[in-house]
Amino acid sequence: MLQPVLVIGAGQAGLAAGYHLQKAGVTFVIVDAGRRIGDNWRARYDALTLFTPRQFSSLPGLEFIGNRELYPDRDEFAAYLETYAGRFGLPVRLGHAVARLVQIDGGAFEATFQNGQTIEACDVIVATGGFQVPIVPDLVGRFGNAVLQLTSATYRNPQQLPDGPVLIVGDGASGRDIAIECRKLQPVILAAGKPRKLFPERLLGKSIWWWLDLTGALRAPADSWIGRRLKRADAFPDRANGNASLEKRGIRIVPRLVDASGNEARFADGSSANIRTVIWAVGYRDDSSWLKVPEATDQNGMFLHREGVSPMKGLYFVGRPWQRNRASALIMGAGPDAEQIVAQLLGHRQEAAAR
């Protein structure tokens, strides 16, 4: 059966796309590999909380209930996504992991799922998110077998770790959160990369996100002066996880990890440490192995698009980091980006019909 629009992914980006497709009267279906809506959030580490407070963590049409100033945890947000899909009756097919997407005769697309089923669609919106495959540097092979190695995707809580020093590689939000949690049970070393600037969590009694939204900084185009500065800084709120706070908790902060041998880690300043566990928290890369559409990816497998519009006609993206601006990587950006993509999709259809 031909579905006019196929949305791949039932996270916040996919559900926001569904909301705007439904509002526009377009027939569509959303597919997701999980058994439940929100499973992509439930699969992450236990202590995860959102970057943004509830007042900036809603999708279009449904407010996130609770204290507007506090940060929801992963399970709260997963439940919100489930509620959202049910509230609007969005057509979601769970347990449908896309194994292959190809373009077929007439310019339509065919998705083949791991369960063997297929769906054909005139247009496809890829909403698989920016947290797909954890990046693991080549240094992983230089540690000995006695060192337990995890990623920010396989780490759950400190109870799964053996006794002994823990090295967290990567000082982003996840790396800092995990370092704080692990320090409750084990000695912790945090290996940083480039100098990291953090936003103050609050300014004059207001959330920093309130100020960034008010000033328009979050909506500044990626190629604007403000956008370039925000992208270069890659800052996030200091929620008692700045360097000084970490050091007060007894977490040792060291420069970049440059080498390893056995259970010894060596750092850029010449120092070293014997460690028992390494947790890699250096970011994620796209998994585009299933996307067999010409011009949809570059030679490194990165998705190609301009503000969510692929060079390949009929293919779109929602939920890409810096898709249009800083908000694109946040919950608050999913709705506006999805609205813009649905408008582009409908515009392209009208142009085709007029020819």
Short description:
24% of the residues lie in helices and 22% in strands. The protein has 355 residues and is of the alpha/beta class.
Provide an overview of this structure.
24% of the residues lie in helices and 22% in strands. Helix 4 links the parallel strand 9 and strand 10. The protein has 355 residues and is α/β, with parallel strands linked by helices. The longest helix is centred in the last third of the chain and has 24 residues, at 331-354. The chain has two domains: 2-132 and 286-354, FAD/NAD(P)-binding domain (3-Layer(bba) Sandwich); 135-198 and 236-280, FAD/NAD(P)-binding domain.
Element-by-element helix/strand order:
EHEHHEEEEEEEHEEEEHHEHEEEEEEEH
Label the CATH architecture of the largest domain.
Answer: 3-Layer(bba) Sandwich
Largest sheet geometry: 7 strands, mixed
Radius of gyration: 21 Å
Q: CATH class of the largest domain, anyone? A: Alpha Beta
Quote the beta fraction.
15-25%
**Total of domains:** 2
Q: Give the total of beta strands.
A: 21
| Average pLDDT | 93
What overall form do the CA principal axes indicate?
globular
Query: What is the CA-CA span between the terminal residues?
Result: 26 Å
- Helix percentage range: 10-25%
